[in-house]
Amino acid sequence: xxxxxxxxxxxxxxxxxxCLVWAFLLNLIIETLARKGFQGLVFLLDxxxxxxxxxxxxxxxxxxxxxxxxxxxxxxxxxxxxxxIGITNGIILIQRMTPFTVKDLSAITDGATLLTNYFSKxxxxxxxxxxxxxxxxxxxLFIKAxxxxxxxxxxKRNATAALLIILLxxxxxxxxxxxxxxxxxxxxxxxxxxxxxxxxxxxxxxLNTGIHKPMGYDEKKVKAIFDKSQYAEDGTMKPxxxxxxxxxxxxxxxxxxxxxxxxxxxxxxxxxxxxxYYRSLMKQYSSGSLTVxxxxxxxxxxxxxxxxxxxxxxxGPGEYPFKAVLKEKTAESIANxxxxxxxxxxxxxxxxxxxxxxxxxxxxIGYDTFTSxxxxxxxxxxxxxxxxxxxxxxxxxxxxxxxxxxDYIYTISVQGxxxxxTEQLIKNPKIQVTDAPNEELKWKYEYYANLVYEMxxxxxxxxxxxxxxxxxxxxVMYGDHIPALDVTEGSYDAKNLYQTQYIVWSNFDMxxxxxxxxxxxxxxxxxxxxxxxxxxxxxxxQTVDHKSKDYLKDLxxxxxxxxxxxxxxxxxxxxxxxxxxxxxxxTIKIDKVVSIGGKYYIKGQNFTEYSKVTLNGETLKTIYxxxxxxxxxxxxxxxxxxxxKVSQIDKSNKEIIxxxx
Length: 661
What we know:
single chain, alpha/beta, 9-stranded mixed sheet, 23 helices, 19 strands, globular
């Protein structure tokens, strides 16, 4: 008994020792949750220095408790923060392949809107109840937890020790980076978390953001990237009106959600090929492997690279430019490049307009119109409640017919999105998984394969429709990333997990030219084949040697100057303004308001299930009766009827996206 008391007084009663032991255990829990098969201990044994370094990070936060009288409360708060990060990361890795980052917190409102796609109502209720109980418990703990009496806290000693431990943590960071045991660049975010530990990587996604200012950044260095002959007459790269009357084709990009060749998954066997049509197109038209910046999630970053010609690798790990710089800043993209050539520019997405801030970003980078799910009526849905892609053919054709001149259309599909169910949801499926490692994977892959089969049918319908269109069209199709399945490099017969497959289809004769590309090179390569050379990054990719050691360094320099720097490439002033983007290519119009039996009905054009009657900015109870008829389900003053409008409403947060008279 005396030995036990002596041990307690010497070690457990010592707050610093307790914090160190507790940090070690917390880190072991966090790393275990981050690894399949609960291999946190394996990480400790394989990489003891890195594991202990991550323990030091947590320890440095815990020891701050020693300067407070309410030590237990402070330790509990720090513990809950790190356990919250660890548990959230573990849950996210079940749903997708990209780990939890600080940037996910900025997307928390978007994530909340997808809860019903990933969790049952019971699970959501349990999560909410757990949060409420946790908050109540913290309040009780703050009131009831013991605190050190005044005079028992040696503030100077403890503060000095805590400061030394924090400085040691910073020193260890720089030292381990220098010797190569840590890295500040994450080529693969998922692998980085596995190699460098969750605490270090999570903090890195907080501190390492944007594009860091390149060494020696100045006007001379930026301007030296291009030859003088490549600049406009005023010595800048501002896009100016050129080639407006040239006979260029309509340009379409089709980004297919989670679309890859399922036959490349070598851990399963399928009853038949799910994408026979897409495969036939790859044999007939220019195609190849496409290196994308996302893995299992991160659609918007693939869009960013294609639209801007810049790499998201220049940004902080896990960062979404759509959620950061492009939310606030106007910038160059292929949309405003083509606009300077007389193109009308359109974006289409069969999901929410507000997701990834697309309703703001697309306006900032040159799109004339954006047709989101809220502007589509009678949309078919998958068993997991995602919009099917078959709706997109009519939307694309509407955009093509909306203007008399050339059209550029960027379409983002959503049908292939996870979460993929672990039980059979599709009865009598067209594609069956005949062999899989286990029952859960069988149903996941079978559900995915049948989604992809329907997407293949959509591609057939779209290309056959475009083939009959009386204007030249070039259509670039590709998957945005691999699906959020249990895919490993060993189970996917591609170069790596960042490979999808692209096709350059056209309804006119083009030479077949197969090559592997990255998403930030894709637009420039396609434009080069049809004689378009407008745009800063377009010119860059078309003229520089991609194997040069300065290729990516100069591209990063351009990206910094264009998005964060002094705009030397544009003569010192950002020349881009908001496009004044309109939501939808079809005008939503009220023809008349009629009263029948004391109830109001709104007759008009192009209503959808997301159309609601609004009065003085207030949303009224509305029932969708068809594309030309809405019913009002509440009473209004007859004198106010003439002031009623129709608004498209985001179902998740009830935000008004746009309003028509």
